[in-house]
Amino acid sequence: MRAAGFDFGTSNSAIGIVKGNGIILAPVENGAAMIPSAVFFDFADGDKPLYGRNAVDAYVNGNDGRLMRGLKTILSTSLIDERTALSKRSIKLTDVIAMFSRHLKAKAEEAAGGPLDAVVHGRPVRFVEGDDVADARAETRLAELARQAGYNEVSFVYEPVAAAAQYELTASREETILVADIGGGTSDFSIVRIGPDRRRSADRKSDILANTGVRVGGTDFDRNLSMQTVMPEIGLGTELIDKQLPMPRSIFADLAWWPTINLCYTPKIVREAQEVHRLAVEPQKTARLLTVLTKHLGHRIAFGVEQAKIDLTDGERTAIALAFVEAGLEAPATREKFDNAIAAELMRLRLAVWNCLALADLQTVDTVFMTGGSSLVPAVEAVLRDELPGAQIKRGDDFLSVALGLTLEAQARYG
Ligand SMILES: Nc1ncnc2c1ncn2[C@@H]1O[C@H](COP(=O)(O)OP(=O)(O)OP(=O)(O)O)[C@@H](O)[C@H]1O
Ligand SMILES: [Mg+2]
Questions:
Q1: pTM, to two decimals
Q2: Which ligand is nearest to the CA of 70?
Q3: Ligand 1 site, residue 12, Cβ cutoff 6 A
Q4: Which of 72, 247, 270, 406 is most buried, judging by how many CB atoms fall within 10 Å of its CB?
């Protein structure tokens, strides 16, 4: 049986296969191993789906259609049974996930030179926090979607456990590591005993000392930064003429979060925004909100905010260009403002690290292996340095270590 290792990420995905005695990641887009987890339905072309960078480009270039990003998040929310409107029909959000999965499976089969029957699928430690039944349901749903995509056999590995397997390949001595996989949708932690000699043992269960996970990730950082910087420019926090009525916050919150952006384009929400605009004390701002809703610019804003966040990883200040909303408009952002905007999320990461150590009955570890795009945020790294002062901090490939680890597991399970 031929198997793939599939890291379906909130923001980015990758898929690996066993080839000869080794493993490789399949080229999935323009020769690259990583693809944005994005699908665009092109209305001018019979709702034809485009994937990854092509999907993002089509949207940014202004093609009429629907962009979907952050789809993995819906598995953890009440949006799981939602549909989204295409040009002439609507489609279940979960079907879009299956289409994306099938697309990557086809790319992996091209690289493998034959069909793939089985998949070792990554999953966050928690899809749903504090609700085991809902959490199990999300995994079952994802397994069904993998079957819908064409796999006959589906098994799961926690994403940070997979990353540990990848790190282990580089380790020359036995150590206890804490993997911190800080992604787009979730942050996942595992404490694992690794070492060159342990690699060969068949059952590694006893080496996995603890796992914790929280639904905190880069898409939340984006939302918070957007709520602090861009949303006030389009009306959030401004007043209505009739002071009995507060400016509704939910439109802005939905518009600022990747998984809910498309929900804002319904006629009902647009009517609400028109009403708010009629009553606004600062109508120049709510006029921008109407522009964003009617021209479907929510994802444009999200991309701008995400880029600003990434700029703030190295820089102290930046500006989010909003000229596509109104000529000359921009929203300044600083590292300090960003760090404040994500303070509550940072605290949740800190608690998840504490819990992981407590579950493993450890005070510290030898090494912290940081992976996932959001592990690059300086304030995130600071939390881990702070909680594990004696440990060395190591990084591998921030975006591919989970996929590589899943493929190693596929090799171990299916040869
Ligand atoms: N230099 C950077 N600084 C800060 N954040 C970054 C940087 N580069 C990427 N990111 C963020 O990392 C996130 C994507 O990381 P990654 O690809 O690891 O997530 P994912 O695997 O798709 O998500 P998950 O594992 O949670 O499902 C995005 O939110 C992105 O904005
Ligand atoms: Mg990930």
A1: 0.97
A2: 1
A3: yes
A4: 406
